[in-house]
């Protein structure tokens, strides 16, 4: 059952498109939204698991995104359990927020002892310098190892994006009609979005995407020959 955030406008697919969709297999539309701005973002401090709120002017900052989402409907909504993401979802899609599934796996990487510090404060730290050059091999003191971060991201992707069988927010298990796009909204963090895009899009690395607070990025997924293939498309609207 779709989660509606407003009036839904969806054209009937042509016979040609339906035939092509059946041939290629299921398709999905995934919208990844980074939370709005916090004080630590403004101050360029490392912000991972520290749970702080959005800036007081978040409603104004997210007004355009809220309007873009107003008439969209979602088949599934997932959100990081941290406050800044929950607040962002409440601002842009309040009806969907009440049905969202909060998931700790969607948290940003944990920067440990570097949380709340800036590049200027850390730039002479040899461990930090090594981490900048080789983040997959060096772990912030008291923080999260890259393999742990990647493992929880892959777990989420395996459960909610790669499988043909899907669990709705109401807990119902269903298999989407190959002719019908499953629309998924994910509100999360910059590092999470970078990692997901590196998995969803061929040839895209972790550092290849710059994600600003309050930005929405949409990916169209199509299953072909047993493999999900992704391409980035414009947002809004959701269209396949």
Largest sheet: 6 strands, mixed
Within the largest sheet, what's the order of strands? 5-4-8-2-9-10
| Count of distinct structural domains | 1
**Unreliable sequence segments:** 1-22
CATH architecture: 3-Layer(aba) Sandwich
User: What would you give as the CATH superfamily?
Assistant: Phosphoglycerate mutase-like
Separation, N- and C-terminal Cα atoms: 20 Å
Active site: 35, 108
Region (Disordered): 1-20
Keywords: Hydrolase
GO biological process, one term: negative regulation of glycolytic process
What does this entry look like structurally?
The chain has 240 residues and is of the alpha/beta class. It contains 10 helices and 10 strands. It has helices at residues 15-24, 39-42, 58-61, 63-69, 83-92, 94-97, 119-122, 126-133, 146-162, 190-200; strands spanning 3-4, 27-34, 73-74, 76-79, 101-102, 166-167, 173-174, 182-188, 216-224, 227-233. The strands form 3 sheets. A 6-stranded mixed β-sheet has the order 5-4-8-2-9-10, sandwiched between helices. A hairpin with a 2-residue loop joins strand 9 and strand 10 (227-233). The radius of gyration is 19 Å and the shape is globular.
